[in-house]
Amino acid sequence: MPAHEPQPGRFLPITPLNDRSALRPDCASCYALCCTAFGFTKSADFAVDKAAGTPCRNLATDFSCTIHESLRPRGFSGCTVFDCFGAGQTVSQGYFPGENWHSHPERAQEMFGAFASVRQLHEMLWYLVEAGSRTFDLDTAGRAADLSTMIRRTIDQGPAALRALDLPALHEVVRTLLMEVSEEVRAGYFADEPEGTGKDLLPQADLIGRNLRSVRLCGADLRGAYLIGSDLRGADLSGTDLLGADLRGARLEGADLSRALYLTQPQVNAASGDPETLLPPDLSRPGHWTGG
Ligand code: SF4
């Protein structure tokens, strides 16, 4: 069997469907796919232009980052935000063991394509764990488990199965289920319009720089909202749908996100917080936070 042909069951460890341990990055088991596969435009998050498929100029030959300890002060804060949901080690160790984009450049595009697809699938798995655990509807929980199983099997079948997958269609199925669970969860919080905040606390809302300090946002639907630089200090986001919300530069000091819905590590990494910020148990406090 060629090295890049998968052996079923290798890529996602056989863990319970609600186990997110395989969905966390393990950079030591990856040959810096994120530092190579994606392209970046010079911005506040990434100090230089970088073409997709080319290694970052800060990448060492052993696939480590030469400026790892000073990414933020040197203008690479985006690197401290990114999270591959464990796709890096799945592709590096599972799909292409003993190979990498440098030693086998003829396979580089296949590696990069697989990485991009697996990252999306792992992210879906991350959300489905939450949907399955937050719903009280057994049928919905069963659908979440079935979707997770199907996605895991697809990943285990390897790059060819990924290429045959209709990712946009799968995204839509997953998104529909996530929204159903969101409605169910948010309904349990009897969300009112928080006093003094206006009537624009809605999905996709432009809340850039908004003062939401100490506001009770329980049960609000802020899916895809732009919360860049917003002041959420001391806010209660229990049951708040944050799917895809942009939290770059948001102030989360003292905020309660322990029961927020669909919060991910990249969103947390992009914000600022402190030891008083409450996070869901599967998320960790970024090192750059106050007291982190
Ligand atoms: S700056 Fe470091 S972490 Fe960021 S892409 Fe370059 S090598 Fe990777």
Q: Describe it for me?
A:
This protein is mostly helical and 292 residues long. The chain folds into two domains: 21-34 and 82-185, no CATH class; 192-292, 3 Solenoid (Pectate Lyase C-like). Helices cover 32% and strands 0% of the residues.
Characteristic terms for this protein:
292 residues, Pectate Lyase C-like, 2 domains, 7 helices, 0% strand
User: Roughly how much helix do the residues carry, as a percent range?
Assistant: 25-40%
Helical stretch count?
7
Low-confidence stretches: none
Q: Ligands in the structure?
A: iron/sulfur cluster
Biggest β-sheet, characterized?
none
User: What coarse outline follows from CA principal-axis ratios?
Assistant: globular
What is Rg? 20 Å
Tell me, rounded to a whole number, the average pLDDT: 92
Tally of DSSP β-strands = 0
Q: What is the helix/strand order?
A: HHHHHHH
Structural class: mainly alpha
Number of domains: 2
The fraction of residues in strands falls at under 5%
